[in-house]
Design brief:
heterodimer; A: about 100 residues; alpha+beta; 3-stranded antiparallel β-sheet; 2 helices; about 15% helix; globular; B: Rossmann fold; 6-stranded antiparallel β-sheet; 5-stranded parallel β-sheet; 5 helices; 11 strands; about 20% helix
């Protein structure tokens, strides 16, 4: 997949859909690509939303990090493209303080 | 997770962009740069969801402002900019996003780079800086098609010329005002070098616009020495349609 087609968004755009599943905001979370090992914020991933679901690809190697598909009353989440996702609990607490 | 917002005011910013003020009674507050998802549902059950950046600064009120640019072939934006009326209700999800945000505790220089309606979340950051009386130094490079397409022109002028809250550079891509020093064109390395913070000041850069604009701007900022982990981006997609 060429990154010069400009048909992608960034991880931010999936945050609403992912909020159905995750209690914490994932856009600021760091995820490691299982293919190239790059560790980036999820917000930096390249996001493709034109298919039947959402596909997030690594901004460095374009390997699939995450797929999210809604089928009737079920939501399928495939995150095998990420070795891990690390969330900053302190920052999230700070942001909820600001929100209050 | 879907909330209901009631339209309390409508304001035309340009011939194609409208600011919608919503009262959301259970709003818990937001951060500058965050967005909401708006869901419209037709009488036959068909629904469409689009993301729109919040234009207003975080405050203690239960009101938010969204500025929506009408897209010619859009499915949602023509309704929001032409048919929506005061008193109508909209379904909202959010606030969303914890990365493309500016927090009032940040003291480093801030470089904002907007392409077209990419100004909207950056305006929330500028307004947040003002309402928090922050001393952070803000610069805005605003690439826009023509003078008539500039959003928030009067407010930006007041903030830059009188308050010195933000230093604004306009870059016109199609039509520039008479006697404008730079011919219309896309942003380039010279413009980045002359109008943005020097990279040795380690500014945090926020870039928002259509995907191709964000790619260009990010490449230029990187080439001028800004570290990629200091550049935060929000892309609209190929046409500028917020998906």
């Amino acid at each position: 997949m060429s990154s010069h087609t400009y048909d992608y968004l960034d991880g931010n755009a999936a945050a609403g859909e992912l909020s159905k599943i995750f209690a914490m905001d994932v856009t600021a979370a760091k995820g490691q690509c299982a293919h190239c090992g790059a560790t980036k914020r999820f917000a930096e991933a390249h996001l493709y939303m034109l298919g039947p679901g959402v596909v997030a690809r690594c901004a460095v190697c374009e390997h699939v990090l995450l797929r999210l598909v809604n089928v009737r009353q079920r939501v399928f989440l495939d995150v095998r493209g990420m070795t891990y996702l690390s969330l900053d609990a302190a920052q999230l607490e700070a942001s909820s303080d600001l929100d209050a | 997770m879907w909330r209901v917002g009631t339209v309390v005011a409508l304001h035309d910013e340009t011939a194609t962009a409208r600011t919608i003020t919503l009262k959301v009674s259970d709003w818990t507050g937001h951060l500058a740069g965050q967005h909401v998802d708006v869901r419209l549902t037709a009488s036959d059950g068909y629904s469409a969801v689009r993301s729109y950046s919040i234009a207003s600064a975080p405050n203690s009120e239960t009101r938010i402002e969204l500025t929506v640019e009408r897209l010619r072939d859009g499915e949602v934006s023509p309704y929001l900019t032409q048919e929506l009326a005061v008193g109508d209700r909209l379904e909202l999800r959010g606030p969303i996003g914890g990365w493309f945000v500016w927090r009032t505790q940040q003291t480093e220089p801030i470089q904002l780079v907007a392409g077209g309606s990419g100004i909207v979340p950056l305006m929330a950051m500028i307004r947040s800086r003002v309402s928090a009386c922050s001393a952070a130094s803000f610069r805005l490079l605003y690439s826009v098609r023509e003078p008539g397409a500039v959003l928030y022109r009067d407010e930006l002028e007041a903030l830059s010329d009188h308050d010195h809250s933000v230093s604004v550079t306009y870059a016109y891509t199609r039509v520039a005002p008479k006697d404008w020093p730079r011919p219309p064109g896309r942003i380039d390395a010279a413009l980045i070098a002359n109008t943005t913070w020097p990279s040795n000041l380690a500014p945090t850069c926020y870039v928002c616009g259509p995907t191709s604009f964000v790619e260009t701007a990010t490449g230029l900022l990187s080439a001028s020495g800004n570290s990629s982990d200091k550049i935060r981006t929000e892309r609209f997609g190929p046409t500028g349609d917020r998906q």
